[in-house]
Amino acid sequence: VDLSGFQFDGIFFDTYEETYADLRQWHDQVPRLLAPTGTYSFFNGIAPYNIFFHAVYCRIAQLDLADAGLSTRFLKIPVNELGIPWGEATKYWTFKTYYLPVCRKMGREQGSTTVAVAVTDSV
Q: Is residue 117 within 8 Å of 110, Cβ to Cβ?
């Protein structure tokens, strides 16, 4: 599909079992597709079994997205409070908190565009 010339107010990328290299390749395309005031997010499921490695990937994604001109913050979503048994059948998420990435073009957000990721959880 030729999307040249099109920009979107919102983009959500949701695929499971992609590698970080796949995700990084897609992230390189987001700035040209995202409208100046648009918001981008993606399923943040890399390293779902180890909170340390998940935090590392969050930070790597944040830095890679900054290189592409996007600021990224992570909203902490307490999964247990949603009443959804994430991971009961498929075990694709084992943490008590989901870290939802919210990305915007640099300059749109107030304050610093680079903030350290604070991913803390227990399994």
A: no
> What's the whole-model pTM score?
0.79
CA pair distance 107, 121, nearest whole angstrom: 31
Residue 78: CB atoms within 10 Å: 10
Give the CA-trace dihedral at 24, 28, 30, 32, to 10 degrees. Answer: 180
| Residue ranges of the chain with per-residue pLDDT less than 50 | 110-115, 123
What's the rounded Cα separation, in Å, for the pair 94 and 102? 21
Q: pLDDT, tens digit, for every residue of 9-37?
A: 999 998 766 788 999 999 999 999 999 99
The Cα 36–Cα 107 span in angstroms is: 10
Query: In 1-123, which ranges are E strands?
Result: 8-13, 34-42, 70-78, 97-105
CA distance 17 to 36: 30
